[in-house]
Amino acid sequence: WPREVKGYIEKQGKVAKELLFWYVTCPKCARKYGKTQTVIFVKVA
């Protein structure tokens, strides 16, 4: 999904300088729910 995010940013006419990933659930909760949700923050130029 990093490529998808970079492609979206480029379509907006901007350049992605840095990507930061934040995992919404802890490893224990991720095992319980069966998936890990991730939020991607992008620093643009």
TrEMBL record:
InterPro entries attached to this UniProt entry: Bact_hydrolase
Protein name in UniProt: Uncharacterized protein
